[in-house]
Amino acid sequence: MTKYIFVTGGVVSSLGKGIIAASLGKLFRSRDYSVIIQKFDPYINVDPGTMSPFQHGEVFVTDDGAETDLDLGHYERFTDTNFGQVNNVTSGRIYQSVINKERRGDYLGATVQVIPHVTNEIKTKIVAATKQFKPDFHIIEIGGTIGDIESLPFIEAIRQFKAEVGIGNALSVHCTLLPYLSTSGELKTKPSQHSVNVLRSYGIQPEILVCRTSKPIPKTEKEKLALFCSVPKEAVIECRDMKTIYEVPLALEAQNMCSVVLKMLQMEEREPDLESWVELVNKIKNPVKTIKVAIAGKYTKLSDAYISVVESLKHAGYANDAAIEIKWINSEECLDMANCKKQLADVDAVVVPGGFGVRGIEGKLNVIRYARENNLPFLGLCLGMQCAVIEYARNVVGLKGANSKEFDENPTYPVIDLMLEQKNVKGYGGTMRLGAYDCHLKKGSKAAKAYGKTVISERHRHRYEVNNEFIEQIEKAGLVFSGMSPDGMLAEVVELPKLDWFVACQFHPEFKSRPDRPHPLFKGLIDAACKNMK
Ligand code: GLN
Q: Is 382 a catalytic residue?
């Protein structure tokens, strides 16, 4: 039978609950247990796909084409497991199913209410994920902070669920913050005590407390927390700020968190195999060089907007014993070529990531032109590939006025156009070309060499594509279309073979990189950057 672990957060938001859930997942995996992690988000959007990255950070895309919370990225990277739509559930999705059922007449005669109808729907979503994956452990992270009005139905649903599966089959991990008062030199436990009290007032007694802290927790304070929050002493876990998020599983393991959980859930203890993870963390903490990579995007004020891109760059860095320093470049400030040059003069590589809308495009084109003309290692992602094609068409092929129909309704040369199947699409939610599709790579191309194979599968999230009418002309001028969809209809990868690394793809490789298995395209970029290091 699957065992359940519910993860909640208190005191403040942004505690890193997602990393804690993912780290516990890693500890199960290191014991050869299977695990899934599911995120419940209390907002009313059906998924984060329609939200601005400024609001919500990156939209993570799964193989099955779900547009999900960025925590799913952490879950996949830590547990090395691919998840899907069932792993991310929002209030919007719950209400949508309940209202659809009501209209269909499924509840005929009943007054439809939060309890039991909404809470039952939430429990159904838990069971659906368990049924799909049949894991040994099912971790459920509830977004938001205890005390929020909007997460109440989720909290009530897990209270019921815990009672239904019974003691020994489910437990709660509550994550809190211990603020440090520098004037008195103390870590304070009171906010955590209050937060646990609020959780209890909803009928949930946590079994495990994970305390985020900037300082070690003195034994006396641990004992105090155990006493007031009614958890065993060994279940008060310290979670310090770390140099790298990938160290968190090791810090939790050092305090036997997983063993405590296994014991409480009456599961057999197994010897964890964390050898390669320890090695990885050592590598991360002892880089021999620093590679400076520019990311030229629009959402540069919020690094969460490109979190998978940043993680993928770091992963490729680990494989090269290199720390990655990100230089955020606001592409709107690259409109002037002289300024663009100045911005890029001190970097070893540049990434133009995905995005939507016309703002910042001309600056991105300048960035790509600079990379192409100066053999600066370049990786273009989705919009970044579309920009690379526009730049090449304009400045090399000589198609002045080449553009994407996303940015100009009627360009002289529409080298990027809406995909055929998108032309009649109405509405914005979940309507892009989403999820995993195969791509065939040209033998001998940089991309094929990097992957070490010619058939790959990558995740997508776009409406526009390269206009096939221009491919021949552009290719004659030297840009190689080295990756195509299996039917040959959709351009997936372009590259310039003469340059050290000038590769761009229509898909999002950043969703498939792992800390101990960097994505080939990111690795190609950082390998080239290391060779050209400034
Ligand atoms: N805006 C472009 C499109 O819709 C690129 C999307 C992206 O970068 N994810 O095709």
A: yes
